[in-house]
Design a protein that fits this description.
The chain is α+β, with helices and mostly antiparallel strands. The protein has helices at residues 2-10, 16-23, 28-48, 59-64, 78-89, 105-114, 140-150, 156-186, 196-213, 219-222, 227-241, 246-255, 267-283, 290-296, 309-322, 325-340, 342-355, 367-370, 374-386, 420-424, 467-484, 491-496; strands at 92-96, 99-102, 192-195, 394-397, 402-404, 408-410, 415-418, 485-489, 500-502, 506-508, 514-519. It has 2 domains: 1-49, no CATH class; 144-519, Cytochrome P450 (Cytochrome p450), CATH 1.10.630. A 4-stranded mixed beta sheet has the order 1-2-7-4, with helices on both faces. A hairpin with a 3-residue loop joins strand 9 (500-502) and strand 10 (506-508). Helix 9 (196-213) runs antiparallel to helix 16 (325-340) and helix 16 (325-340) runs parallel beside helix 21. The radius of gyration is 25 Å and the shape is globular. The protein starts with a helix and ends with a strand.
Length: 521
C-alpha cells in the first residue's frame, strides 16, 4: 500500500505538498485521504480559477483530464466530438485541463501564420524511432533547414517537368477503367463495378512512384504491392499514438505487444525505401525525379543541408503517405459529392467539353489548361472545405505565455488545436455551410467563399510543401474521370460512405467506394 501510494504522490505537482505527503506515506490511510483531497481541490481550482477557466468547456473534461484516446473511440471519430463542442460552446473551447481548440478564423491565422506556434507534442509520436522529418519535427530550426533542402523538388518549374509522369499514371488509370468496362460488356453487363476509392489510392501511389523514385509501383496494373495496406495500417497506428501520451504507449506496448504497434511504424516501408536508394546509388545514374534532388543534397556546401541515406528514407516515407492518401481521398470525396449533385457534375462536364471537344480521339489533358478552369477548381475547393484532410485539427503548443485573439491569456505549454473543419463549416463564414455548392468559389457568387476561413493546406511556415503537386494531380485525375466516363453509385457503397474516420487523413472507414461505370460516347 505504501509503495503504491508513493507512486501516486510522485505524479502530483512538485512542491512542498508533494514532499510532505511523501515523507509521511507510511501513514497510508491518512495520507491517502490527504492525497485525494489535494487532487480534488487542485482540480476544482483548475476548473473554476485556473488560467483556462474563462474558456468554456465541460466540467468532466477539465476535471479528469482524460487522454485524447478516450474521446477517439471508435478510433478516428474524435473530430465528431470536437465539432459538437464548438457548436455548443463557440469558437474557443477548453477540451482538457491543458488543451483548447479554436475555430475562429482570425485566431487560427494568428496561431498558424502570424505567430507561427510550434507543432504540439503529438507529432513526436509520429517519429519512427525518434527520427525527425519535415512533417513531424517540433524543432523550428530543423524544419527551416530541411524545408530549404527539399523545396526545389516542389517548385512550379520542377513540377512542370514531372507532369508527363503524372499524366502517364493517369493514363493507366483511364485504361484500367476502360478495360473493366470492356470486360463487363463481354459478360453482357451494362456497366463495370469499380472500387474508385481503392483505384484512386493505387493511382496516387503510382504517381508518387513515378515522380519521386522514377519507377512505378504498378498498383493500377496488378494491385499486388504491399504498400497500400502498409500505409493504411500506419495511419491507424499513428492516429493511436497521436492520441495518447508516450507513457501510456509504453505501458500498452509492454503488455499488448502483439496487438498494438503503438510506438512504431511498419518497418517494411523503411526497408523498401532503403532498397530503392541503394539501387540508385549503385547505378550511378542521374534521373529526373524527387529522389535525385534529395541525393544531390549529400554534396551540399553546408553540412546541415546534407541528407544521409536514413534522412532520405524517412523523408520519402513522408512523401509516400502525404502524396497518396491525401490527394486520392480528396478526389474520392469529390466524386461522391458530384454523384450526390448531378447538376454540379453536368456543369463540370460542360466546362471540360468546352476546352477539350469530344471528337472521338484520346485526349491528354494539359495542366496549363486545367488550372484556369473556374468550375473544376471550385469543385475541388468545395470538396476540401467540407472534407478537409486534417479533419482532426492542427495542434500547436504555446512556447511562451500567450495572448490569443487579444483577450485570452494562455500559459506556456498549452496545446491549441486549430479546428479547420469547424471553421470551414461555420455558418457565419459560410452560408449553408454543410451544402456542397461549388458556385461559392466563382466570381460574382451570391454566397462568396470566405477565403480567410479556408485552410486546406494549413498556413504559415508549416503549410503543405506539396500543395502545387497536389493541385496538379487532383486536376488531372478528376478531369480525366469525369470527361471519359459516366458513373452511378452502388447503394451499398453509399451507405459505407456515411461512416467516416479521421486517422492522419480523413477517409471512409471501409476504405472502399464502388461505382457503376460506362464510357461516355
Amino acid at each position: 500500500m505504501e509503495n503504491q501510494l508513493i507512486k501516486i504522490i510522485d505524479r502530483l505537482p512538485d512542491g512542498v505538498v508533494r514532499q510532505f505527503l511523501k515523507r509521511n506515506a507510511k501513514y497510508s490511510s491518512a495520507v491517502a485521504i490527504l492525497v485525494a483531497g489535494y487532487f480534488v481541490t487542485s482540480r476544482l481550482y483548475r476548473v473554476y480559477f485556473g488560467p483556462l477557466s474563462k474558456i468554456p468547456g465541460t466540467f468532466f473534461d477539465t476535471f479528469f483530464d482524460m487522454p485524447f484516446l478516450y474521446y477517439n473511440l471508435p478510433l478516428g471519430t474524435r473530430y465528431k466530438r470536437m465539432i459538437g463542442l464548438h457548436q455548443k460552446y463557440g469558437r474557443v473551447v477548453r477540451t482538457t485541463g491543458h488543451t483548447i481548440t479554436i475555430s475562429d478564423k482570425d485566431m487560427i491565422k494568428q496561431v498558424l501564420h502570424d505567430d507561427d506556434l510550434p507543432k504540439a507534442w503529438a507529432y513526436k509520436n509520429l517519429q519512427l524511432e525518434g527520427h525527425q522529418t519535415m512533417f513531424n519535427t517540433l524543432d523550428k530550426d530543423f524544419h527551416k533547414t530541411r524545408r530549404r533542402v527539399v523545396s526545389p523538388a516542389f517548385s512550379v518549374k520542377y513540377l512542370a517537368a514531372l507532369e508527363h509522369l503524372i499524366s502517364d499514371s493517369v493514363g493507366e488509370f483511364v485504361q484500367h477503367i476502360n478495360s473493366a468496362v470492356d470486360t463487363a460488356h463481354l459478360h453482357n453487363q451494362p456497366s463495370a463495378e469499380v472500387d474508385m476509392w481503392r483505384l484512386l489510392q493505387f493511382t496516387a501511389l503510382d504517381v508518387i512512384g513515378a515522380t519521386a523514385f522514377d519507377q512505378s509501383f504498378n498498383m493500377v496494373k496488378d494491385g499486388s504491392h504491399p504498400l497500400p495496406a502498409t500505409i493504411t495500417r500506419n495511419l491507424t497506428n499513428a492516429a493511436f499514438t497521436g492520441a495518447v501520451s508516450n507513457e501510456l504507449i509504453n505501458v500498452a506496448s509492454e503488455y499488448f505487444e502483439d496487438l498494438l504497434y503503438c510506438n512504431r511504424q511498419d518497418q517494411s516501408q523503411f526497408w523498401f525505401m532503403v532498397g530503392i536508394i541503394e539501387e540508385r546509388l549503385k547505378s550511378g545514374k542521374r534521373k529526373n525525379d524527387i529522389l535525385q534532388i534529395l541525393i544531390d543534397s549529400q554534396n551540399a556546401e553546408l553540412k546541415n543541408d546534407r541528407l544521409n541515406n536514413e534522412d532520405i528514407v524517412h523523408e520519402n516515407i513522408l512523401f509516400l503517405i502525404a502524396g497518396s492518401e491525401t490527394t486520392s481521398n480528396t478526389i474520392g470525396f469529390a466524386i461522391i459529392h458530384l454523384l450526390e449533385h448531378p447538376e454540379a457534375l453536368a456543369l463540370l462536364r460542360e466546362e471540360l467539353d468546352s476546352v477539350y471537344p469530344r471528337n472521338g480521339s484520346n485526349v491528354r489533358f494539359e495542366h496549363e489548361d486545367l488550372k484556369n478552369l473556374p468550375y473544376l477548381n471550385a469543385v475541388i475547393n468545395e470538396t476540401m472545405r467540407i472534407k478537409p484532410v486534417a479533419m482532426g485539427g492542427l495542434p500547436r503548443e504555446t512556447d511562451r505565455d500567450y495572448i490569443l485573439g487579444g483577450k485570452y491569456h494562455i500559459p506556456k505549454n498549452i496545446m491549441i488545436s486549430a479546428d479547420i473543419y469547424a471553421c470551414q463549416v461555420d455558418p457565419e463564414y459560410w452560408p449553408e455551410p454543410l451544402a456542397f455548392k461549388p458556385e461559392r468559389w466563382l466570381e460574382g457568387s451570391e454566397i462568396p467563399a470566405d477565403k480567410d476561413a479556408f485552410f486546406p493546406f494549413s498556413s504559415g511556415s508549416r503549410n503543405c510543401i506539396g500543395k502545387n503537386f497536389a493541385w496538379m494531380e487532383m486536376r488531372l485525375l478528376l478531369s480525366s474521370f469525369v470527361y471519359n466516363f459516366n458513373f452511378d453509385p452502388v447503394p451499398e457503397s453509399v451507405e459505407d460512405a456515411k461512416d467516416l474516420r479521421q486517422f492522419i487523413t480523413y477517409t471512409i472507414a471501409s476504405n472502399s467506394y464502388k461505382v457503376k461505370v460506362t464510357k461516355r460516347h
